[in-house]
Design a protein that fits this description.
alpha/beta; nine-stranded mixed sheet; five-stranded parallel sheet; 30% helix; 27% strand
């Protein structure tokens, strides 16, 4: 079985989420006696491809027109790469880009799709997949019929793969002019920050509706995150209220994270939010409500007002 991992470049590296997808690919390869290859699509991806080659032989499709991931163009490119490499199993990270683009590739190839996989096993010579459903409330085992099988790996379920030694990088010969271009990239609206992305940070400080203004959120949540070199997260309620930026939203409709430490402050813990962070290694919470659902998942909890507790924490750090 040839397994192709679709990795996402992030500067000169590949994203942590893609390294988690490689871990799933290694598990599948061990279960089905498979071999792994990696593909990266984009522009100016030479350094990222070299980094990826430390995990498996890597193939690149590089062109200025692929600088931004549009679903139709990337989906068609992935389909061509899968056909060219003869892969029967395709694995990508369960990121917005991953799910958007590989789903189109699966449809184009007539394959089957399994999203948010958290485990795989070989049963009677066939790989079966465990995936989360209903906001993480259900973990179901499923069998994918057809080929290729296209899987997205839930980052929080897998440790990032560790490099094993540089292998090879090969440029693919694919006519990028033949790729569709109905979707045009316009812009990305995001707040510039020196903090790590919430999906990549080892420590995440997350704030909820307890904060009254965006300025309070930035001063307290951002200030505490800066003290520990962490990323900032938020509940959907805080985003909807205009207190926290969209890109910080953690949860079923936001980002799925699994940091070493997650500190939720002023967050009640709605099931949609828990779906995005409950696999964090250590969970801590600060809340005035000692019956907040998040406290049921917390390893450590402090019953206190955020406006009193955070300045004291910042002073002590």
């Amino acid at each position: 079985m040839k397994i192709l991992v679709i990795a996402e470049a992030q500067g000169k590296e590949i994203r942590h989420a893609s390294r988690s997808a490689i871990t799933l690919a290694k598990n599948a390869a061990a279960a089905a006696n498979g071999e792994i290859e990696i593909a990266i699509i984009g522009d100016d991806i030479e350094a990222a491809a070299t980094a990826a080659s430390a995990y498996a032989p890597t193939f690149t499709l590089s062109d200025a027109s692929l600088a931004n991931a549009t679903a139709d163009r990337y989906g068609a490119a992935i389909a061509k790469i899968v056909e060219q490499r003869g892969a029967s199993l395709v694995i990508a990270a369960s990121t917005s880009q991953g799910k958007d683009c590989v789903a189109r590739a699966a449809a184009s190839l007539g394959g089957t799709m399994v999203t948010d996989a958290i485990a795989c096993e070989n049963r009677d010579g066939k790989l079966v997949w465990q995936r989360t459903m209903h906001a993480g409330g259900v973990a179901a085992w499923v069998v994918a019929h057809g080929s290729p099988v296209v899987v997205t790996a839930l980052q929080s379920a897998y440790e990032p793969a560790e490099p094993t030694g540089e292998t090879s990088v090969t440029a693919l010969e694919i006519d990028v002019a033949s790729l569709p271009s109905a979707i045009q990239f316009e812009s990305v609206s995001t707040k510039q920050s020196d903090r790590p992305d919430v999906t990549e940070a080892a420590v995440v400080i997350s704030g909820g509706r307890a904060f009254k203004t965006a300025e309070d959120y930035e001063q307290l949540i951002g200030g505490l995150a800066d003290k520990v070199g962490g990323g900032t997260g938020s509940s959907r309620a805080a985003v909807d209220a205009g207190i926290a930026p969209n890109e910080n939203q953690v949860g079923q409709t936001g980002k799925i994270i699994a940091p070493d430490l997650y500190l939720g402050i002023g967050i009640s813990g709605a099931v949609q939010h828990l779906a995005g962070m409950k696999n964090s290694k250590i969970i801590a919470a600060i809340n005035t409500d000692d019956e907040a659902p998040l406290l049921d998942y917390a390893d450590f909890a402090l019953i206190a007002d955020a406006y009193d507790a955070i300045p004291e924490l910042i002073d002590k750090l």
